[in-house]
Design brief:
- It is a single chain.
- Strands 1, 2, 3, 4, 5, 6, 7, 8 and 9 form a nine-stranded antiparallel sheet that branches.
- This protein has 209 residues and is of the alpha+beta class.
- β6 and β7 form a beta hairpin.
- The protein has one domain: Electron Transport, Fmn-binding Protein, Chain A (Pnp Oxidase, Chain A), CATH 2.30.110.10.
- It contains four helices and nine strands.
- The two termini are 38 Å apart.
- Helix content is 17%, strand content 36%.
- Bound molecules: flavin-adenine dinucleotide (FAD).
- The site of flavin-adenine dinucleotide (FAD) has 16 residues, from β6, β7 and β8.
- Flavin-adenine dinucleotide binds next to β6, β7 and β8.
Length: 209
């Protein structure tokens, strides 16, 4: 992957990285992205699931999706992935911040036409969201596959940005009697809620426990 100026972190560059391993670690820890693209001068940023394999992010949705119909034409797109790790509470309002891991990737998408490649891409998305689920479900029929658009977004270049650690206050503010520190935040699994229409005696699979 070649990097140009557009993926060089300029604001607080010490938090930035173009290392492929850093980018992949963040992409693999998430499953929700925001896809940015411009149609007739109007920018859109649309949240969507994804699954990564090497430098490809697979996106899927209804064949009627405006986002997918635009992207499949190969227009320039930007995919952002964000993981929020905590609120950084400083002594001053100015130095409040967030702990986070994020990736910004630039590239273009193409539509996957071939049925088996489409199904494999859907498996990659499904496995990214909940590993193990794909093996248990009824797989898509030809009709369902037809109603689903699947795109492969090829990352041309990407950047990662990460903030960790305590607040960084101005030297004179450390003496102030104001609590400061980090309030960690994370996305956590809750307890499963069985579908009321679930046939009796079907136990929850291990991957939701
Ligand atoms: C959860 C979260 C909350 C944030 N809140 C704020 C906020 O309230 N205000 C604020 O100003 N900033 C916030 N940021 C940081 C913000 O994402 C930008 O990094 C920052 O605003 C600098 O923007 P810029 O366009 O000047 O970046 P530049 O450094 O000029 O951007 C150049 C290139 O660096 C890369 N880059 C920039 N930011 C990121 C990023 N976050 N992740 C990966 N690559 C990146 C991109 O490739 C971009 O094209 C937040 C980030 C996260 C993840």
């Amino acid at each position: 992957m070649e990097f140009t100026d557009r993926s060089k972190v300029r604001r607080l560059p010490l938090r930035g990285s173009n290392e492929w391993a850093d980018i992949c670690a963040i992409l693999d820890a998430a499953f929700l992205a925001h896809v940015g693209f411009v149609v007739d001068g109007q920018p859109f940023v649309i949240p969507t699931l994804y699954g990564r394999r090497e430098a490809t992010l697979y996106l899927h949705g209804s064949a009627a999706s405006r986002m997918l119909r635009q992207l499949e034409q190969g227009i320039a797109a930007c995919v952002t992935v964000t993981l929020v790790d905590g609120l950084v509470l400083a002594r001053s309002a100015f130095h409040h911040s967030m702990n986070y891991r994020s990736v910004v990737a630039f590239g273009t998408a193409r539509k996957i036409q071939e049925e088996s490649a489409k199904e494999e891409a859907l498996r990659v998305v499904s496995e990214q969201v909940l590993a193990g689920r794909w093996n248990d479900v009824r797989l898509p029929t030809a009709k369902e596959l037809k109603a689903t658009s699947v795109l492969s977004f090829e990352m041309e270049e990407a950047s990662a940005k990460v903030r960790t650690g305590p607040p960084k206050d101005d030297a004179e503010d450390y003496a102030l009697p104001i609590w400061a520190g980090v309030l960690p935040l994370s996305l956590q699994r809750g307890s499963v809620i069985p579908d009321p229409l679930l046939t009796a005696a079907v136990p929850p699979p291990d991957y939701v426990k």
